[in-house]
Structure formats: structure tokens, C-alpha cells
Write a structure and sequence with these properties.
alpha/beta, LmbE-like_dom_sf, Rossmann fold, about 230 residues, GlcNAc_PI_deacetylase-related, 7-stranded mixed β-sheet, PIG-L family deacetylase
């Protein structure tokens, strides 16, 4: 009997957040035939290169998100919310709730709770509540309820305070190569002068792979209420 396929919804505050931090695992699942969907609550256009028009850069970012997802055989959704103006509101929770009910993911990946970036922390809170809303059958929306049973928080250099790797997920050289090729579509990953994103994350997946006694790996945290190991004996 063939293994059942899963759907993964990776939700970031900006285009590129999930592609960088969970992209190796997303590529690995893509190669196994699983469905990959990315959702960016903003495009992240305020990182516009000097001398460029911000509206044009936003369009570029949306296209970069689509390009990454298409290379993984998936799809990308980008909300039309200005970068830096993401509201920690009921309205946003309902918007994300509706996407969860539309996509029906087995797995959601998003930001860890702490960050130097307010959009990341806001996204974390929105996603946690939206997942809860999406799973409530008594919470009536246009689409029927759906509960995503697994929730993970990706490792991000901007979200590092109190982050401790809890789950290591390894992936192959083939998945690594696909991830590097796909994430390199994002200008800021290869062209930013403020931080060497691609170099950092390529080294990070190798270090995490070594720690896991594998070649490459990405790490994740889980909700605190899920942090338990069950055994009948030692």
C-alpha cells in the first residue's frame, strides 16, 4: 500500500521567510509527491533595494513566491497587506482561518513566538489562533471546519531568542539542491547586502544535519503543550 500523501501549509510574515527556514523540508516532501502551499501575510516589500520602486518590488516578491512554489509543484498565496503593517486582529485570524479551511493541511509551519521582527511575532499569534478557529465546527465560515493536526515553528535567525531545536527533519542531497535552486529565485536571498541569507542557511542545514548524524536537516519547535515523550518503559 502506498504511503498517504500529506499537505503542508507554510505561513510566513513575509515572502521568503518559510522558503528559507523550512525550504529544505518542503522540497523533500515535494519530491515525495506531497502538496506544498506557502502563505505570506505580507510580501515583505519594505526590503526594497536602494533606488527601486517599492510597488514594483512587491510585484517581484509575489512572483518570487510563485516561482518557488511552482518549482516544488505547489502553490503560493500572498495577502495584499503592506509590509510592516500586519495587524494583530480578529480579521487577520479569520483570513488565515479561511485559508486553512481551503487548503486543508495536515501540517502547518510558521514562525516561533519570539523575534526581532514584529511581523514574525504577530504571524505566530495569528496562526495559532487561526488554526484553532479553523478546527471548530461550531465556528461557521464559508468553508467547513478542518483541523491541522501538526504545528511546527521554523528556525529563523531573526526568531532566535529562546528557540531550542526540538524536532530534526533530515533531507537528501536532491532535496537540498532543489531548495537552493528554488530559494535563489528570491532577490534578497542572494542579493541582500545586509545579511548573507543563502550562505547562512546553507551552513545551518549542514550543521543541523551533522547534529542529526545526517547530511542535511532543518529543525523545528512545537507548541509547548505538545512537548512530551510517551513511553511505557525506559
Amino acid at each position: 500500500m502506498s504511503e498517504q500523501k500529506v499537505t503542508i501549509l507554510a505561513i510566513g510574515g513575509h515572502v521568503g521567510d518559510m522558503e528559507l527556514t523550512a525550504g529544505g523540508v518542503l522540497a523533500s516532501h515535494s519530491l515525495k509527491g506531497d502538496r506544498i502551499v506557502t502563505l505570506a501575510l505580507t510580501a515583505g516589500e519594505r526590503g526594497v533595494p536602494a533606488g527601486r520602486d517599492m510597488a514594483e518590488y512587491r510585484e517581484q516578491k509575489v512572483n518570487e513566491a510563485k516561482g518557488f512554489a511552482e518549482m516544488l509543484g505547489g502553490e503560493a498565496i500572498v495577502f495584499d497587506i503592506p509590509d510592516g503593517e500586519l495587524q494583530d486582529s480578529e480579521e487577520m485570524r479569520l483570513k488565515v482561518c479561511d485559508v486553512i479551511r481551503q487548503v486543508r493541511p495536515n501540517i502547518i509551519i510558521t514562525h516561533f513566538k519570539n523575534s526581532m521582527h514584529k511581523d514574525h511575532m504577530t504571524t505566530h499569534r495569528i496562526v495559532n489562533d487561526a488554526r484553532f478557529f479553523a478546527g471548530l465546527a461550531s465556528f461557521q465560515r464559508e468553508l467547513p471546519a478542518f483541523f491541522a493536526s501538526r504545528l511546527y515553528y521554523a528556525e529563523n535567525w531573526e526568531d532566535a531568542v529562546d528557540y531550542k531545536p526540538y524536532v530534526y527533519v533530515d533531507f537528501s542531497r536532491e532535496a537540498y539542491d532543489l531548495w537552493v535552486k528554488a530559494v535563489s529565485l528570491h532577490w534578497f536571498v542572494t542579493g541582500s547586502a545586509s545579511f548573507p541569507y543563502l550562505e547562512y542557511y546553507k551552513h545551518l542545514v549542514r550543521v543541523r544535519g551533522i547534529e542529526a548524524r545526517k547530511e542535511y536537516a532543518e529543525t523545528f519547535m512545537v507548541p509547548e503543550e505538545s512537548m512530551r515523550v510517551l513511553k511505557t518503559e525506559l
